[in-house]
Task: structure prediction
Amino acid sequence: MHAPNVEISRDAEALAAAAAELVIRAARDAIEKRGRFTLVLAGGSTPERTYSLLTGPERLPAVDWSKVFFFFGDERFVPPGDPASNYGMAQRSLLSRLPNAAARVYRIPTEEATSAESAAAYSGALGRYFEQAPDSTPAPQFDLVLLGLGDDGHTASLFPGKPAVRVADRWVTSSPPGVLPPPVDRVTMTYPLLNAARHVVFLVAGEKKAIVVKEILKENPGRDKYPAAGIVPAAGSLTWLLDEAAASRLTRR
Result:
């Protein structure tokens, strides 16, 4: 893969606007080339603001949303209406504002008895959508995957030292909680699935992320220390959208 593209915005609001414009460009390109756009959503405050901006009056008409299909990179094992639910956040900030979106939303089914059963059910749903056997190789290719970055270097729900970072034979797996709240089990896409995407984009804001950003981009720490470092698309592109605070430890050209 090529070196990641790094784009720095003034602040978190400008970062969210840049991310919204990137989503629009990717959507229009995918719809023109393949007739649909498959988008993997992330949780977090910066993605939430991005979603809100996408549904504003100036951006909403820019995409044929009837051809956009929504997925989730990870989820807390909580009911969909729980305040901690990534789906719930996306529903409030984006999905509920789009016409007839429900039929094109593939959320992680947290109604299952266990997080492991939830992960297996989501692999099955993805297999049906992409018309291939669940967990088969090569993994299906999403058009765009949005990811965040935790203070501990995690992304999606791939946490340092947890078994999920070693899963190579499944598209989706369960994970015990990381060190960050809330202390609930997680369901997450795995490296084989995330790294199969055409384009992966990290959205990272805030000075607390600056040291981790620098180490990942400059020092090759590896996925054991910072799981986000394991995001290396096999054939696609990787972009880091940062605000100036998150980029403050990088050497500026």
